[in-house]
Write a structure and sequence with these properties.
There is one protein chain. By secondary structure, the protein is an alpha+beta fold. It has a domain of about 170 residues: Rossmann fold. It contains 7 helices and 8 strands, in the order E-E-H-H-E-E-E-E-H-E-E-H-H-H-H. Strands 2-1-3-4-5-6 form a 6-stranded antiparallel sheet, covered by helices on one side. A hairpin with a 2-residue loop joins strand 3 and strand 4. The protein is elongated and about 125 Å long. The protein starts with a strand and ends with a helix. This is Rad50/SbcC-type AAA domain-containing protein. Keywords: Coiled coil. InterPro entries: P-loop_NTPase.
């Protein structure tokens, strides 16, 4: 991936800035408090990887970011406005748009950068880690990263014990196929656990029915229905008398 152009716009400050990047090497230098750090942070922020420490004044400026870059020669532009993201191709046609880093943006950025890894969240859901996990080895935040390693971006705690997996992935200690197979195994185990839980629930329900069901019996006591029986017999005798009369006349 190569960076081409960065555009920053603040409607609140009524200011804008454009920076272009050399195809080979770009050096950012200047005096303290001139915005070098936030220039770098804006690059990662465009992909949804927000730095762990952001200047309060910069946050209040509500900066909209557009980053133009290329991957293997193919040019893209990514736009970030608050928590909304959109990717455009070289012809400025919309490729995709989304707001959720985990459900929308993360998987799309992962496909774009070939970030093929899935890890479990605190709730044990298997997800493609958001973009900050892809950029972790390549950015050291001067406000936080020097004091606490692997903490230069926000929202890292959503993946517990991520450091070893991310380290092994980026260094190539374990190949990409390993993580693909691991994800498939985790998904199969999750489905198996769901089926086991469903089976246990059915077994408990069956046991309750067997142990708590009273035997079904039918009891009949004629004395309880004596009045109804007498009434039916009287109606039967009336019908029989009518039947005998009709039978006699027909002869």
């Amino acid at each position: 991936m190569k960076l081409r152009k960065l555009l920053l716009l603040s409607m609140i400050e009524e200011k804008a800035r454009q920076e272009t990047f050399n195809d080979r090497t770009t050096v950012v230098f200047g005096e303290n408090d001139t915005g070098k750090s936030h220039l770098i942070k804006s690059i990662y922020s465009a992909f949804g990887a927000t730095a762990s420490v952001v200047n309060e004044k910069w946050s209040k400026a509500s900066v909209t970011t557009m980053l133009e870059f290329s991957i293997d020669g193919t040019i893209y532009s990514i736009l970030r406005f608050d928590d909304q993201y959109a990717l455009f191709d070289a012809g400025d046609d919309l490729v995709w748009a989304g707001a959720s880093l985990v459900k929308d943006v993360g998987p799309e950025i992962a496909r774009l950068l070939d970030f093929t890894i899935e890890l479990a969240t605190k709730s044990n859901d298997l997800v493609i880690p958001p973009p900050q996990f892809c950029f972790l080895p390549f950015y050291q935040d001067q406000d936080r990263g020097w004091d606490d390693t692997w903490s230069s971006f926000k929202s890292l705690s959503m993946i517990p014990d991520f450091k070893r997996s991310i380290l092994e992935y980026h260094t190539g200690i374990r190949p990409k196929e390993y993580y693909s197979a691991k994800a498939l195994r985790a998904e199969a185990q999750r489905e198996q656990n769901e089926l086991k839980a469903e089976r246990r629930a059915l077994e408990r329900a069956t046991a309750r029915l067997r142990n708590g069901r009273a035997p079904v019996t039918v009891t009949f006591s004629p004395e309880l229905f004596e009045h109804q029986i007498q009434q039916l017999l009287a109606e039967l005798n009336e019908l029989r008398a009518i039947y005998d009369g009709v039978k006699t006349r027909s002869r």
